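Notes from hallway chat w/ T.B., transcribed later so I don't forget. T.B. wanted the structure written out for a chain they're using in a teaching module, and asked if we could keep both sequence and structure tokens in one place. Agreed to drop them here.
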Amino acid sequence: MAKFVHHFRDRRRFQPHLRNALKVIAAVALLGFIGLLLVPAISDRIDQLADQSQSKCPKYGRAGDPLHTARPAHAGEVLAIRLTNAGEFVDRCELTDILYDLNWDYERCPREFRPRISPSAERLPKLVVMYIHGWKHSGDNEDEDRKRFGEFVAKLSVANRHKKQVLGIFIGWNAKARLFPLTLPYLENLTFWTKKRVADRIAQSAVVTKVVGAIGAVLNQSQTADDQFVAIGHSFGARLLFSATGQTLIYETEYKHPGYPGGRYKPIRGPADAIILLNPAFEASLFTAMNDTSRREEIFENQPPLLVSISSTGDWATKKAFPVGQWFDGFRSEREMITLGNYHRFQTHVLYPSTSEACFLNRHSADVSETFFASGLCFARVPKTAFLGLAESYPHNPFLVASTSEKVIKDHNDIWGEQFRDWLFDFINALQKRLPAHRIGLPEQTVDTTARNSRCQL
């Protein structure tokens, strides 16, 4: 009995120490949790400064002025445009440099600033490929996404040697954690909400719309119909690109509507010749208005694809993590919780190995928007009766939403895998072959030298 009483007194003696220890542990855990919530927001304040001049390159007449560079100077290369969290240019001269490398061989108007032409310059149609990186990447020269995109552009340049002047444009923004401990692999996932807000803020600034519009305007002044502009976005970069171009696509589609049931759409042209979204990280609800073009009443005839979305079933980030992030942000409806690529009712296509059954349903079609075979893969429109729950899919509708398997794109970031990269390369080349005939069919795209000369009148 005495031994039991002694043991009980020892426990009472140590209980205050135990309670204090638990309080310290609880306080540390609470501070750690608060820190993990605050650090991402603090991390986003580590941002590059905006250029003082946002309307034009401030280096005019000084060292580094892009006007002093003989053109073309960057054929087959990748040039970067860096953006701040507020959607402002880090260096406005980056955009000027790109535009000079594209308009050097166009008609020069009086008092117009134009760079000098290199003696070895070769006048060729332009192929411009713009890429907006996604979450956990940046505009740094050593960024893995930038390196892989550079390899892709170099391959396009070699394939189009003496046929096209190829230029890559890499849009860099603050999508990567730069503050410890968020730089650790798993903790960087906590930046989901802040990086999503950064992407949306940049989209609201309309700076990407400005860049897309500036490139498109330069290429539209060309005297050839063979110029091509392809814009690609990945993850939150696809969110940014869709926000920058989606409203224009909707406007142009409604503008070319026949105006009566059973009519045919006039050929539609978007802000870029093709917009490609890879594992896009935006909710399906943002695509609802675009999907509404899928109606029985009107017909698309010989319309090239304007927007192509490709999502992998192996993409854990958009399939599992994105809905959780949306739930914590207060979204509850199905289309707000699920990304575009995982919302089957909007799906129109599959991208599968060429041996799959779906590839033989439209195997006789020669239209790139219906069935396209390349690099051991086939891109095929899904017949409306093929799979229960899929959206009704109508030929030549220019808004294509495709699903692929983890065998083609392993996960969220595996967009530069050899097989898919080669297929994307072939797909862009196929769009080039389709483009001239499409443009000739558009009256407003026909080269009008009178109209072009009129802009030079003082």
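Follow-up for T.B.: The chain is about 35% helix and 15% strand. Might be a good example for the class.
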